[in-house]
Design brief:
about 450 residues; alpha/beta; Rossmann fold; 8-stranded mixed β-sheet; 7-stranded parallel β-sheet; 17 helices; binds adenosine-5'-triphosphate
């Protein structure tokens, strides 16, 4: 199996305070790691072999039944480190299988017979939390309890459950977790693994950052747990690595597993753009949908501004989904996912979308971690705000690690003439190529 060199940036950290690495030590450390990775790859053909002796057999058996037989490239590179208990920053492309990697690390560490919170996975959105919980429960197969503490109305009930019988694994959003810990529903003193998924996103939110710091330093100590950060994008990762050690979010020997460091965008995705006016956008989208005939698609729309909310306007997501419900004549179900929907409606939308052909109209809440492997097309009806947002939106397609060539995975962005330079900037930053598409023939232009 081919190996891309992972870049272990822990090698960039001074091993003792004040010490510095010379280019020589850096080179020799990298050589050492590359050699070690090759050895691991030569010997490791299956997930079972990579995890052998570390992950309980019943979990590996469940993994195989689900279809996780061969490790992805990022799993091959990270699992030997994760399963040795090393603190890790998993920095790898969207759809590379980070969830399974950190969950296997959790299952290798927890004591299935103990009733205490031993592992915590922190996620930025309810939907990602629901997804991670589902995979964890599938793997655990009732050998331990996995509880989801996600924002919504059930927290009160969960407080009594968690007190009566603490689950071994908790998957939580930052706000729900802090609410529970502060109300002393449970303690994190016996936590042995802490995972922060989409770490750059959570750190990027000024609302969540102080709570996140508490989770990292006040509720338990880095020395008593394994800490794992995951994301496809960790801007200024050397700085982040430095902060991890400096602020004691991790142990001093944290490892940065950086898979495909020079190519953040998965290479199997194709990128296109169509230049049109804002007025033409929805009709252009309709024609694209008719022409592309996606298996399933996510249509990203900008979130509603406070000003527009105050003016009583409907959110763009609703306008677009109503338009598609009226005009789209294909067989896919039009679904809507949006921040302001209540918990039950969001949960229903999210579960309905699974298993059927869909056109999901959403804001960026669907751009992080969402795993809907049947998504063949992504449409950016509005240009994302940053290159990182583009990366995560694009990464909602092409998510079947071993059958990528069977499905055409396309990201199409609708832009005005004036926005073209922004797309070019994203292209340079993320190192991908976009191709201009002719404006598709439209049945009816807006009057
Ligand atoms: N070893 C494997 N064999 C087969 N499928 C796998 C394997 N590992 C992961 N997958 C599948 O690959 C898809 C992507 O995995 P996952 O959601 O963990 O990606 P990710 O790296 O977390 O992506 P993102 O950064 O977008 O959140 C999922 O559908 C998952 O079930």
């Amino acid at each position: 199996m081919a190996v891309a060199a992972a870049f272990l940036s822990s090698s960039l950290l001074p091993t003792t305070p004040g010490s510095h690495l010379t280019p020589f030590t850096l080179r020799s450390r990298l050589r050492l790691f590359t050699r070690r990775a090759v050895v691991v790859n030569a010997a490791a053909a299956t997930l079972r072999e990579v995890c052998s002796g570390r992950v309980p057999d019943h979990v590996l058996q469940r993994a195989e039944e689900i279809g996780y037989v061969v490790p992805t490239e990022m799993q091959e590179q990270s699992l030997p480190l994760l399963l040795s208990g090393q603190d890790c920053i998993l920095h790898a492309q969207t759809g590379s299988g980070k969830t399974l990697a950190y969950l296997l690390s959790i299952f290798s560490t927890i004591d299935f017979s103990r009733s205490s919170v031993q592992a915590l996975v922190v996620v930025p959105t309810r939907e990602l939390g629901m997804q991670v919980t589902k995979v964890a429960r599938l793997l655990a197969a009732k050998a331990c309890t996995v509880m989801a503490l996600l924002d919504g109305g059930t927290l009160k009930r969960q407080k009594s459950w968690v007190k009566a019988e603490p689950p071994a694994i908790i998957v939580a959003t930052v706000a729900s977790l802090c609410q529970m810990v502060e109300r002393r529903a449970f303690s994190l003193q016996s936590m042995r693994v802490l995972v922060i998924d989409e770490v750059d996103f959570i750190f990027g939110s000024s609302k969540q950052v102080s709570s996140l710091r508490k989770i990292l330093t006040s509720y338990s100590a880095a020395s008593s747990r394994q800490t794992i950060f995951a994301s496809a994008s960790i801007p200024q990762h050397n700085r982040f690595l430095h902060d991890c050690v400096q602020h004691k979010w991790t142990k001093g020997d944290v490892v940065h597993v950086h898979v495909h460091p020079v190519q953040p965008m998965p290479s199997h995705l194709c990128h296109k753009y169509v230049i049109c006016t804002k007025k033409e956008r929805m009709h252009v989208l309709l024609s694209l949908l008719e022409r592309d005939a996606p298996k399933s698609a996510i249509i990203f729309v900008a979130g509603q501004s406070e000003r527009s909310k105050k003016a009583g306007n409907p959110p763009s997501t609703m306008v677009v989904s109503d338009f598609l419900r009226n005009e789209y004549k294909g067989s896919l179900d039009v679904m809507l996912l949006e921040e302001d929907m209540n918990f039950n409606a969001r949960a229903a939308s999210f579960s309905e979308v699974k298993g059927r052909g869909f056109l999901l109209v959403s804001t960026d809440i669907a751009s992080r971690g969402f795993d809907l492997p049947q998504t063949s097309h992504v449409y950016n009806l509005d240009l994302p705000k940053t290159a990182t947002d583009y990366l995560h939106r694009a990464g909602r397609t092409g998510r079947q690690p071993f059958s990528r060539l069977e499905l055409e995975c396309c990201v199409t962005t609708l832009i005005t003439e004036e926005e073209h330079f922004v797309l070019r900037r994203f292209q340079n930053e993320l190192k991908f190529h976009t191709q201009e598409e002719e404006l598709p023939l439209m049945n009816c232009f807006p009057g």
